[in-house]
């Protein structure tokens, strides 16, 4: 008897565990689960008893071979039907607070301040996740026109956005300001808000309501205003620097002309012979220093003109070979003094080109002067001029010190030099390449530099031979402003770069005068 009781207890426990797992899978709350487990236990025991008793009850009517399956099947069907009814009663919908729908939950969960407007712009509903952070006038604006709550100067933009929706648009936006909390230290403040509106239309397409979402963009507006102020300050400082540079350069030329003129008179001994060679040497040094300073002043004047867009190019046909030879002759004495061989080569039948003669000459002088300066004794500097299709190609190559890789991304900036320390062995101000870049840009040309440290540098200037680049720069008859100094992007660590390329505006790399 005890064994039978133990077996029955184990069977009941297994039934209870199976019922509990089934109810847990259906999502039945734990506090109601024990009651339903008891019900399922009773049903299960009843179903077993019915499965045993039904065939016995059917045996007088049916043969035993039919009574057993029919009785067991009927008991199982009844059990499953009752369980199905209990399952449907167990699954209860998720309870929500009375009066709150799914639409309300979504409306109140939207970021910022959510507003529902009628077609006239009157607020009919307020909500939103950040509703409490907005001014009180907007937190409970039901029954008021939204246009009356924003700054008076922003009402036209808001009304225009609403009218756009009424005319058939699906969405519209506006930037408005509303009065914020008054501060004793900062006075009356206004919040900058971004307003996004979406049209809600009926079946016939008529505008029935407008869903509006407001977000506080005061921080973004402050950053935008600060950026605008910074740009204005930078532009003002830039213009002041240009005026200062032009004024100082102009004032320096007057005394320099006197220094050069009187040093020429003294060197020519027009008013008496000099007594010693030391006096002649000193006068020659004065003349040389004055000429160097005048060249620097002229370069600074040209820079300020290019920067301000007032550098006038005079396009005229001229023979390129004459300009190349003039540059070679001008720098030949300096090259021979350093022990450098300076040669010039022009292609046969080069003919004439249309460009600014003075500017082309300045480009070659600066590039060739750089090459001579950075080439040691025994080196070679070559100036080449050829035609390539409709372009004039000028090349200045040398066997000098080249350009270190760590200087590539900084080259082309005014006053930037390859050797920028107190022990550098080459004179110069770092303005030569900047001026060359500006003059090439005014011609609509390209500047390409190939260099390796210790192996030399090749600088190639490509200009339209027919002067079409100059016409494109100022079609209205006036010189178009050129960004000067040209803005250099971060350069890759490479020994070859393109500058002012019309197809690839890479960083400039060249030696600086």
UniProtKB/TrEMBL annotation:
The keyword Transmembrane applies. The chain crosses the membrane at residues 40-58, 64-86. Residues 247-467 form the Histidine kinase domain. The keyword Transmembrane applies. It catalyses: ATP + protein L-histidine = ADP + protein N-phospho-L-histidine. PANTHER family: HISTIDINE KINASE (PTHR43047:SF63), TWO-COMPONENT HISTIDINE PROTEIN KINASE (PTHR43047). This is histidine kinase. It comes from Pseudorhizobium endolithicum. The lineage of its organism: Bacteria, Pseudomonadati, Pseudomonadota, Alphaproteobacteria, Hyphomicrobiales.
């Amino acid at each position: 008897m005890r064994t039978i009781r133990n077996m029955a207890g184990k069977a009941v426990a297994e039934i209870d565990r199976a019922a509990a797992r089934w109810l847990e899978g259906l999502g039945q709350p734990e506090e109601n689960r024990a009651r339903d487990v008891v019900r399922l236990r009773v049903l299960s025991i009843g179903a077993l008893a019915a499965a045993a008793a039904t065939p016995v009850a059917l045996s007088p009517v049916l043969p035993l071979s039919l009574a057993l399956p029919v009785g067991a099947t009927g008991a199982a069907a009844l059990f499953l039907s009752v369980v199905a009814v209990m399952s449907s009663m167990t699954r209860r919908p998720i309870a929500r607070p009375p009066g709150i729908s799914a639409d309300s939950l979504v409306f109140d969960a939207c970021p910022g301040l959510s507003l529902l407007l009628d077609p006239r712009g009157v607020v009919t509903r307020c909500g939103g996740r950040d509703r409490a952070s907005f001014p009180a006038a907007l937190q409970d604006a039901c029954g008021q026109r939204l246009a009356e709550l924003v700054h008076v100067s922003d009402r036209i933009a808001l009304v225009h956005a609403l009218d756009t929706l009424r005319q058939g648009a699906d969405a519209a936006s506006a930037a408005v300001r509303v009065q914020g909390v008054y501060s004793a230290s900062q006075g009356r403040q206004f919040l900058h808000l971004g307003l996004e509106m979406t049209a809600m239309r009926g079946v016939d397409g008529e505008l029935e309501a407008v869903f509006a979402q407001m977000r506080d963009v005061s921080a973004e507006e402050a950053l935008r205003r600060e950026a605008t102020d910074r740009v204005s300050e930078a532009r003002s400082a830039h213009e002041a620097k240009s005026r200062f540079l032009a004024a100082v350069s102009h004032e320096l030329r007057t005394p320099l002309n006197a220094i050069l003129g009187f040093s020429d008179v003294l060197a020519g001994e027009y008013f008496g012979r000099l007594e010693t060679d030391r006096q002649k040497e000193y006068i020659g040094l004065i003349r040389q220093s004055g000429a160097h300073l005048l060249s620097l002043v002229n370069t600074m004047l040209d820079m300020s003109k290019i920067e301000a867009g007032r550098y006038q190019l005079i396009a005229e046909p001229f023979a390129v070979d004459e300009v190349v030879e003039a540059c070679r002759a001008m720098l030949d004495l300096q090259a021979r003094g350093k022990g450098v061989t300076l040669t010039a080569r022009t292609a046969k039948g080069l003919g004439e080109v249309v460009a600014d003669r003075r500017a082309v000459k300045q480009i070659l002088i600066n590039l060739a002067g750089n090459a001579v300066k950075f080439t040691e004794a025994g080196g070679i500097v070559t100036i080449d001029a050829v035609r390539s299709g409709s372009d004039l190609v000028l090349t200045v190559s040398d066997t000098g010190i080249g350009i270190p890789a760590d200087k590539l991304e900084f080259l082309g900036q005014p006053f930037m030099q390859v050797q920028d320390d107190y022990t550098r062995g080459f004179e110069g101000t770092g303005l030569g390449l900047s001026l060359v870049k500006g003059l090439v840009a005014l011609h609509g040309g390209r500047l390409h530099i190939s260099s390796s440290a210790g192996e030399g540098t090749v600088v190639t200037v490509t200009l339209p031979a027919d002067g079409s680049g100059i016409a494109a720069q100022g079609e209205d008859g006036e010189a178009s402003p050129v960004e000067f100094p040209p803005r250099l992007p971060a350069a890759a660590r490479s020994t070859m770069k393109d500058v002012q390329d019309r197809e690839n505006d890479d960083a400039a790399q060249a030696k600086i005068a």
